[in-house]
Automatic annotation (TrEMBL):
It comes from Streptomyces mirabilis. Transmembrane segments: none annotated. This is Urease accessory protein UreD. It comes from the Bacteria. InterPro entries: UreD. It is found in: Cytoplasm. Required for maturation of urease via the functional incorporation of the urease nickel metallocenter. Keywords: Chaperone, Cytoplasm, Nickel insertion. Belongs to the UreD family. The gene is ureD. The lineage of its organism: Bacteria, Bacillati, Actinomycetota, Actinomycetes, Kitasatosporales. HAMAP family: UreD. UreD, UreF and UreG form a complex that acts as a GTP-hydrolysis-dependent molecular chaperone, activating the urease apoprotein by helping to assemble the nickel containing metallocenter of UreC. The UreE protein probably delivers the nickel.
């Protein structure tokens, strides 16, 4: 910790253990980022990200890195929502997610929501590197403001690459100081919960999911590769989760 904010990185390394399961030779947390291994399911290792302190606050630099080896299966969740808050240190906070999945590996990245509290300023960067044959479920949910308050400034960029080739690269900025119109009909239409789900499956190469509406403010779109993107808006976090869960069940079949 410094007067400019907290610097912390959590690291996860998953490897096939040779006995039909997944080992975690690397499981390291720092500062507000604590990692806990939880009960496994079949050949899948499960890790919970536990926030040991409030944040991210203004000036903080937090990062989570996960590497999944060939034949390993890793499920990462979080114990509670992450709340971006204003801090004593001035300036933007950053939260970086770096994920790497080898061919034959599988990562299910399913944390709880990120809440942008009034007065906060957070930049989230998520970068996923996949190799041929990798499988991915990546969920991102954002809630703009707590109950009865306006949101802070939130910018989020998500990049997914397969063998160095981009599958998805997009950025969205919301809240005070964001480009005009983010809250209007061409942006979020007044909604305060937004989310996306990226699913990568080798079998989508020959049988890609069909583009379709899930409901008025949610849609499934095939990407240029063995992947699909679900984008959704909702009035609250509960409704958003229901929509994304329904979409994931349909894509997991």
């Amino acid at each position: 910790m410094t007067t400019a904010g907290v610097r912390a990185t959590a690291r996860i390394g998953a490897r096939a253990d040779g006995r039909g399961g997944t080992a975690l030779p690397v499981l390291e947390g720092e500062g507000p980022l604590a990692l806990r291994r939880t009960r496994a399911s079949g050949d899948e290792a499960r890790v919970m990200l536990v926030g040991a302190m409030s944040g991210p606050l203004g000036g903080d630099r937090l990062a989570v890195e996960a590497e999944v080896g060939e034949g390993a299966r890793l499920h990462v969740g979080s114990a509670a929502a992450t709340i971006a808050l204003p801090g004593q240190a001035k300036g933007e906070a950053r939260y970086d997610v770096r994920l790497d999945v080898s061919g034959g590996g599988e990562l299910r990245w399913l944390p709880e929501q990120l809440i942008s509290a009034q007065g906060s300023d957070l930049y989230v960067s998520s970068r996923v590197e996949l190799r041929s044959g990798a499988r991915l479920v990546f969920r991102e949910e954002q809630v703009l403001g707590r109950v009865g308050e306006q949101p802070g400034r939130l910018t989020s960029r998500l990049t997914v690459r397969l063998d160095g080739r981009p599958l998805l690269d997009q950025e969205l900025s919301c809240g005070p100081g964001a480009p005009g119109g983010w809250d209007g009909p061409a942006g979020l239409g007044g909604h305060r919960a937004l989310g996306q789900l990226v699913v990568v499956r080798p079998e989508f190469e020959s049988e890609p999911p069909q583009a379709r509406l899930l409901e008025e403010y949610a849609a499934v779109m095939p990407l240029a590769g063995p992947a699909a993107l679900v984008s959704a808006l909702a009035p609250d976090a509960l409704r958003l989760r229901r929509v994304l869960d329904e979409a994931l069940r349909a894509l997991d079949r």
